[in-house]
Amino acid sequence: MIEISRTVTITDDELEITAIRAQGAGGQHVNKASTAIHLRFDIGASGLPEYYKTRLLEASHHLITADGVVIIKAQEYRSQEMNREAAVARLVALIKELTTEQKSRRATRPTRASKERRLTQKSQKSAVKSMRGKVRRPTE
Predict the structure, then answer these.
(1) How confident is the model at residue 140 (pLDDT cuts 50, 70, 90)?
(2) What CATH number is attached to the domain comprising 34?
């Protein structure tokens, strides 16, 4: 059982985990052992609350297919067990990320002091830049 929050959990039978051969360098070990993990999680058929399902299905994320299936491939470790844990951790992180409510931004105005600071810095910078010009000799 995988715990998303105190009230939301995913049972192990909702996950489809298969071991596949990893890609990339690794010599003979990578050619023989199936250490990479391919995790599939069907959002619609899961036991998640409706709020979670709608948030996940509405999100456009590269790990979620159009059918509402989350596909995660983990192959960063040499052991199958560590890759399984990494894939489950990525699934939990994805669900938490997509279901947290974003705080709405309240529009604010700059304070009077911040406006004055900006204008004084602007005039100081202008004075410095005006001093960088060519030095003119007084005409005699």
Answers:
(1) low
(2) 3.30.160.20
What confidence score (pLDDT) does residue 138 get? 81
Whether residue 47 is contained in a domain is answered as yes
**Between 124 and 79, whose confidence is greater?**
124
Exposure b/e, 8-26, CB count within 10 A at least 16 = b? bebeeebbebeeeebeeee
**28 assigned to some structural domain:** yes
Domain count, the chain: 1
Q: What dihedral do alpha carbons 53, 57, 59, 60 form, nearest 10°? A: 150
- Residue 78 CA, chain-centre distance (Å), reads 24
Is 134 inside a domain boundary? no
What number is the average pLDDT over the span 69-83? 88
Contact of 53 with 45, CB cutoff 8 Å:
no
**Contact in structure between 51 and 99 (CB atoms under 8 Å):** yes
Residue 8 falls inside a structural domain: yes
